[in-house]
Amino acid sequence: MKKQLKSLNLLKGIGILMIIMVHNRHFIMKDMSGLRPLINYGQMGCQLFFMVSGMALCYSWSHLSSKYADSQESPLTLRQRLTCSGQFILRRYLRLAPGFLIILCINYLLNVLFMDVLDHSPGFIVNRKPAAILTNVLFLHGFFPDYINNVFPGGWYIGTTFILYVLFPLFFLLFEKLYSLKRQLVIIIPVIFLILNCILLRNIANATSNELYPYNNSFLYYFFTNQLPCFSLGIMLYFQEKTDFSAKCPLPVSIVLFALTCFASVRLYLMPEQNFIYTVIPSLVGLSFYWLAVSCIHIEQHVAKPPKIHFITNFIASCGSHSYGMYLVHAFVSWYGLKDLSYFLTLGGNTYNDLMLYWMLYLPTVFVIYVLGLYMTKLLDRIDNLLRPST
To answer: Are 335 and 23 in contact (CB under 8 A)?
Structure first.
């Protein structure tokens, strides 16, 4: 494994902890305290995943394509590239689909149990329409406004991710061609994707009389073109690392740029939803995480005596290596479990300090989700080992 990928696990760990942070507050935090908007920023852990995935997929693609190339130096022929692309997409599907389908079925059964048998509202209400279920099973829900995020808890991320996975070979080829012409040209690709996305989403909003509008947690916010610039920043960093970009970028510079872009993204996030700001926020957030990744890679690879890894960073990196398993199961704790806990705590008109309860429960819920995610990852690894020989 490339040394960079250890840093990527740390970043993915931060991402899943951010997602748990925002989802934990759904049924606990009832007031509009000043910290709530900042806690909501945890949703941007998905953008961290997109950026990291863009870079990590490049290593997977390079490893796979090396098996099809005639030699290490020779480029893939069209036939080799198509074969490699098909194999790449199939592997990504087989890695995503089993866990997604297992948890979807469990959520469906829980909904039947809670709503039809116990007459109790669950933490997540599944859209049980056949079309909704079918589009999710086929991983097409990223194209359907009515089904993108109401069949599976947080299912929009997986639907959008799979679309980006399918298109990844084309994106990689685009970066590869521009990199071969002039290395610095790769910098313009995320900018072009951002401009094209802004134009596309404005046209969609105008054509639908703003029925489809890219406000936060809307269909157009989730749409793959809105997340593509962020995703492409990870691909860009992969190509930049071919010439040790992180080594050439002074650590104080990357840290300052991370701080500035992070502050700008938080500031924009806290502004009222207007003027299509959510066509820009995911890209700006992705840029802040890009500089965070540059800093992490620099520290890991180019600092003579890097800080000693201790328990906390080890745990976060371990969360990163099991992040997909944790993402799949976290709703059982963050949504189902905490909603029922809130229900029992307020029986008989009782109240609780929501902010205090939130912080008291954060670490225990992270630990429970980590353990469940660990077992889910082991199950997915076994399924993957069974399926991979046939691919």
So the answer is: yes
